Every structure is written in C-alpha cells, then in structure tokens.
Amino acid sequence: MEVGGIQALRAWRKRQSGTVSLVPTMGALHSGHRALMDRAAASGDAVVTSIFVNPLQFGTDEDFFKYPRPFQADLDVCEAAGVDFVFAPALGEMYPAAPEVTVSSGRMGTVYEGAVRPGHFDGVLTVVAKLFTLASPDSAVFGLKDIQQFCLVKRLIDDLNFDIDLIGLPVVRDEDGLAMSSRNEYLAPADRAAALAIPQALDAAAQAASDGSPAGVEAAAQAVLHVAAERGDLDLGYLGLVDATTFQPCAQDFEGQALLLISATVGGTHLIDNVSLEFHRSA
Ligand code: PAF
C-alpha cells in the first residue's frame, strides 16, 4: 500500500493499467468505511482511499480542528481492506490559498440537511470534484445513509460530465433497525430506544407506499414520529418525501424514485435516515 499526496497520487495513477475505484473519506474510519472499501476492492479495481478533513464543508459552529484524526489507525484499516493507495494530502496542498472558484450545490444543496448546515454541500462537492480530478477514478463508492450527499454527487457527475460510475452502498442497520452511525455511541440506552421511532417510521412509510402512490406516505411516517415526539423522547427535524433527482417534494401523482428523508435529535444527537420508494401509476 502506498501513501502520499498529490504528486504521488498522480504518479501512481499513471502507472495503473486497469480500472481504479475511489473511496473518499475524512478518516476516523469505522466499519461503514470498511464496507465501502470492501465494495470497491470486490470489483477487482485498484482502490484509492482518500483521507482528508475538508475545511470547506465545516460550518462556523462546527469545529474543524477538533475533528478526530487517528491517522495510524486509519492506515491500518486501509491496509486490512487491501487498499492500494491512500491519498492523504496536507491541507496546504489541497488549498494553497482560499479557493476563488468552487462548486455550487444549487437549490438542492440548501434544503433538508443543507438548510441545517448552510454551505456544507458546496464544500463537499468542491472537494469531491477535486478528488475526482486528482484520482481520475473509473468508479467511486459512497454510502447511501448520507443520501443528500450521494444524490448531489450524482448530480455533480451528471451535470459536470465526470465519466465516473457512482456506486451507492445501502444503509447498514443494527439488529434493532437503527442505521449505523458513529454518532450512535453518544446515545444513552433510553435515547437509543427513542431513536427506534425513526426506522419504525420508515417501515410505516414503506408499507403506506406499497399501493404505488405517494399519497399518505409522509402521514404514515409522521404518525409514528408524533408518538415519540409527544412522549418528549425525540425532536423531529425534517420529514420529507422528495424526488431523488431534484429533492423537490413529490406531488400526489409523482412517478419514479422518491426518497423519504428524516432527521431527528435524540438526547442532543442529530440522526438522519432515509428510505428509497418507487412510485408507478400502473402499480
Ligand atoms: O462523507 C464524507 O466523509 C465527506 O463528506 C467526503 C465525501 C469525504 C468529502 O469530504
């Protein structure tokens, strides 16, 4: 496994004769990241994992300097996953000066998570575009838990004509249904029990969607979340049924792939989850 910055990555990339897959990360690697690397390696591609804490995607109230950076432990995870190149550039190498030209995530980057974290998705897409340019991968693997990030990266690829196959890895859930997240460790047992209203709401929505129409889907999820909210266990952030390509709310006659998005705060911890639902009039 090689480890290096921009020059080393470019030199390594030139030597590759086969296909290359990129797994972008900010380090502090856990089993979710490992699953992304395993997926990339399973395709037989040479795998590049980037480890770079990107200041552009942090808000003024989010502490970029306190973000965990367990570099040696991260390298061990990459080594065990069979990663071929770890791209770990210095901050000054990625941003020698504050960038003048950046990527705009548009309206789609200002709603839902984008409304909670203004400017976040512009920062994400700017660094992802730089990683795509530097690593020139044939494919890139992202988790579907951060679904708005995933859908925006899809728009980045489509709208700016990157020739990259985007692979989404399904949300990994614990046995009780809660989506795995490094933030789950902040949940006290009572908070965790309350947080289960989130996957339960998604299940209720999926059942309501089984007649093939969006009518009643949000209401079904809302009903489950209301019970938890009324008990005072959970503070609902947003709930929305949106078109996956635009993040515009779905009309009653919507057809195609929709996403039900949920965010909630439980015991001070911000949790997000989603489910993908297909609607077809003939169904
Ligand atoms: O999902 C993340 O870890 C980050 O947003 C990403 C895609 C590595 C960009 O910094």
From TrEMBL:
ATP binds at residues 26-33, 143-146, 172, 180-183. Its EC number is 6.3.2.1. Pathway: Cofactor biosynthesis; (R)-pantothenate biosynthesis; (R)-pantothenate from (R)-pantoate and beta-alanine: step 1/1. Beta-alanine binds at residue 57. InterPro entries: Pantoate_ligase, Pantoate_ligase_C, Rossmann-like_a/b/a_fold. GO terms for biological process: pantothenate biosynthetic process. Keywords: ATP-binding, Cytoplasm, Ligase, Nucleotide-binding, Pantothenate biosynthesis. SUPFAM superfamilies: Nucleotidylyl transferase. The active site is at residue 33. One of its GO terms (cellular component) is cytosol. One of its GO terms (molecular function) is pantoate-beta-alanine ligase activity. (R)-pantoate binds at residues 57, 149. It catalyses: (R)-pantoate + beta-alanine + ATP = (R)-pantothenate + AMP + diphosphate + H(+). Its main location: cytoplasm. It comes from the Bacteria. NCBIfam families: panC (TIGR00018). Catalyzes the condensation of pantoate with beta-alanine in an ATP-dependent reaction via a pantoyl-adenylate intermediate. The reaction proceeds by a bi uni uni bi ping pong mechanism. Belongs to the pantothenate synthetase family. PANTHER family: CYTIDYLATE KINASE/PANTOATE-BETA-ALANINE LIGASE, PANTOATE--BETA-ALANINE LIGASE. Homodimer. This is Pantothenate synthetase. It comes from Brevibacterium antiquum. The lineage of its organism: Bacteria, Bacillati, Actinomycetota, Actinomycetes, Micrococcales.
